[in-house]
Every structure is written in C-alpha cells, then in structure tokens.
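chain below, 578 aa
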Amino acid sequence: MLIDTVEKFNSVIPDLMLCSNPTVDTETNGLNPWGTKTKEANSIIGIAIGTEREAYYFPFRHLQGTNLPIELMEFFRFYLSNPDRVYGGFNYKFDMHMLRADGVPYAANIEDAMLSAHLLNENEPSFKLKDLGDKYLDEKSSLEESILKAKLKEIGGTKGDMGILSPEDVEPYACDDVRITRGLLKIHREALEYFGLYDIWKQVCYYSVIMTHMENRGLLLNIDLIQQYQEDAKYHIEELQEILNERIGRKINVNSYKQVCALLEVESSSAEVLEVLSEAGGERGELARMISDLRGWLSVDSRYYTPYLQDIDDNNVLRTSFLLHGTISGRLSSRNPNLQAVARKTDTFKVKDIFIAREGYTLVSMDYSQAEMRLACFYAKEETMAELIRNGEDLHSTTAERLGIPRDAAKRINFGVIYGIGAGALSEQLRIDRNTAYKYLQQYHQLYPQFRVLMNACKKTANDQGYIRMWTGRMRHYDENNPTHKSMSNLIQGGVAEMMRVAITRAYPLMHELRSYMILQVHDQVIYEIPDSMVAMAVPILKANMENFEFDPKMTVDVSIGKSWGEMESWNDYCSRF
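prediction:
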C-alpha cells in the first residue's frame, strides 16, 4: 500500500504501533550512507514496513510523484529504534546504516532472514532475497523486481536510480520485499527451532548489530603518511622500471603475463615461480627479483594507498563492510575494502602504519595464539601435542626435532593437517619430491595419531548425518557439491569462528563502561580503540574475556599495543616500562 499523504500516514499509524515485530526495508539511491572523498553520501528515498496485516511504502525523496513531508521521518526515528520492538529485515545491517544517516538510532533487537538462511544452509547457491523467495515461498517472488528493472531500463538506469521513478512505480517492489522477508522469517523460525538453531540465530543477529557499530566507527587513516608512502612508491617504481628496461633493452609491463613469461622463458609468472627463479640466482633470477619488486611497489599503491584515499570520508575515516554470510564456516569476511587482507608489513608494503588511533586513544590488538591447533587438540584428545602447548614449547621446532625433519616442514604440516593436507600439496609447498612429503606425513601421524582418528570420525559423521555440529551447536552441512573430506577442517575453522563470535558478543556490553570501541576483526584477531586513560584497566578485562573458554589446552591471547596498527609492541614490553 502506498502511503503518500499525511492523511494516509495518520490512518496506518495504529497498525504500525500495534505490531511488535515489523519487517523493514529501505529503498535508497546508493549503497554508501557515509559518503567518501570522491562520492556524496547516499540517502533513503522511501521506507517499506510490513506488519501482520499489510505492507506499506512511505516515499520521501522521489524526484517525481508525491512524497511525504520529510518532517514525518521524525516518527521513524523513534518507531524504528524502540528497544522493546524486534525488527525483521534482510541484510538489515545495511538498512540500519541508511536509517542512521537520517537520524534513526541503531536498533537493538533484529531478526535477519539472510542470516537465518545461512544458518540453515550455508551451501545456498544464492543469498539474495528474491532468489530465496522464489525457492522457498513462491516462484513468482522475483516478479516485481523484474518489472522494476524493466522500468529502470527504459530510462537507462539501475536500482541505484530508483529515486528517479515515481513512488507508484517503486511501491509494488518495496512492499514485496517486506512481504517476502516476513514469509521467510516465518518458515525459518520453525526450521531453526526444529534443528536446535534458534538461540544461535538470535545470537548471530545480535552479533550483526555489533558489526554494524564496528563498521560505523571505522578506522582513522594518517593521510600525510599515505602521501609520503605514495611518493616513495612512485620513486621506486620509476627507478626499477628504468633499470629493468635498460637491462632487457625494451620496455616491459611486469603485470603482463605474456611478456614476463616470454622474458623469463617460463609458463607461469606467479609470485611462487618468480621466488623460485630468484632463489636460483643467475641472470634470470636477477630479472625475476626485479620484476617481483616492481610488482610490489605497483601493487601497494593500486591496492591500498590510492583506493583508501578515495574511500575515506571527510574525517579521514575508512570503513569496511563485514559479511556474516560470506564463508561456509561462519567466519567473518570483509569487503569494500577488504581490511582482513591488508599485507604483512615489509619495506614495500607499509600499509598497516597508516591506520592510526584517534586523538586520546590507543590501538590494542588481541590475537588468539594457535587457536586452531588448540581446538584441534581438544577435539582429537591429542595429548602429545596438547602437552607441548601447555608447557609453552615451540610447537614447530619440537615437532621438527622429534621427527627429524626441517622446521618449515613441521610448521606447514602442523597447520596443514587441520585442512587435510596430502603428500601432493605438501611436496609443492616444500618443493620436495612426493615420496619425501609422504614420509613426513606418515611420521607426523605416528607422533600425533589422534588427528587422523578425528579426521575419520568427522568424515563418518558428515557422511552418515549430512552435517556436523560445532561446539556451540552450529551446523555445517554437506551435499554432492560439498564433499565431507573437509569436515575436520570445517569443524576446527568453524569452531574458532564461533569462539570469536562468542567472545566479541560477551565483550560488547563492556565497551560502554570502558568507553572503548571494537574497530576491526581479522580472523582470530580483534583490534580495539581504547582511551589512553583506560588502557591499563581495559586490557586485562578484555584479555580475560577472550580466554574464558573451557577448552584444554586453554586458549591464550597475545596482546600488542600502539598508536598505529603497524607499530605495536607487546603488552608485556609495554608494561615493563612502567
């Protein structure tokens, strides 16, 4: 139902107010509620609300047709942030950001149908609302979207141009969104209850709210330092390119697969191949090293410095989007930009240095130490390795010594066994023959036999049931496209992801008292922004929270502290100075 007059608005208020769990969807003219240095912030053009009785569309900023007075947005600032109301949505984290740009505080209680779909079957080929609606509700669920796209095509626009259309053109699509969301939530609740996942879903929805706050805070960048590093990169690029061109007698594009392969007489120009050639030495080795170095300098600017400068807002804050459905394990992923893939600091990739604490704050990194190995020992009851961990021994060196193999081989097997590494993959990683790699693995499994037992048990359970459960009860499902040979890896990776989710969820209520913020999660690491005056109090509390799990070997957290992400010292070293 289109609500485009004050009279209509007033007439539907009772139905809205009496609904304790409305479904909500915002229609917008873009995807960025904050704006960047190169693009203006996007805004809401209309809001769709679904109740038990009806679906309504409230237009506010369409460029043609009749809109409601913008003053009526004040109603939604209270209606959509009531802590006693539960808001249903689909990827509702995005809608909350757009609503906040219009002055609507973030909701405290949400039910997200995208997250329930992922919990019920992380193998879904698509997590788009209309695709799920077509599959589980009505094969015509995507009809209104098709009609809307046709209307937009007539004017040469995309969904980001919906504001050009009239409210009458958009209303059927917008109302369909909240109807489909409501329908999915209904069937999902029943399925979640049946599989014992309902409580986990509510926790994941709360986790999503926390991620919304984390995204909004963002990370502050040191612009002067970025520009300095850009100049440094430009100098090295020009210097290396000139030297390389003179060496081979012509200009070469080092990012051209064909040109590099022809020059080095190889079939691949991958970083691994260049590394092997560099280590071999000689003329080809020197050229390979120069090409690799030049690629690095080109990459650090094109992948990091230039995009970051374009994507920061007017306060030099960079924000990412965390995906709670981006991986099968439930581990968070990050995009636009991917801040979980910031390169390790080197002389070339000086990227982490540019992320700095705000004035009066300190960055604190808390990173689980060997979380996957510890959880693997717990699940497998692998006492030999567990004892090494409990005693604080260097796991890789001790394993190498006991097996009589190189430390690098022991390290790769320690990490790789969780993922079911075989002789072929190990031989490629270590650049050794397959028979030697096979021998290493056999020795390893004799020393730590319970990992193979766990692997077989996971595969059997996955084959028999079609799923395995992690320690929280979360499920990992298997079908013909998701073979069970990775079930042990899924159990461990998923278990650590659940551990991180629980730790962050427990920590969030502490943030207010500690006047602190969580600003980034990178796999097994959380980065906090803590007031200088609160660091001494906050660190032990947050560290204890992250380690508070009943696993044996117990979880431990490495803490580092600094004014930039790239320049941090260990917590112990920091404390020793006082």
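The chain has a mean pLDDT of 95. Residues 282-311 form the longest helix (30 residues).
thats it, cya
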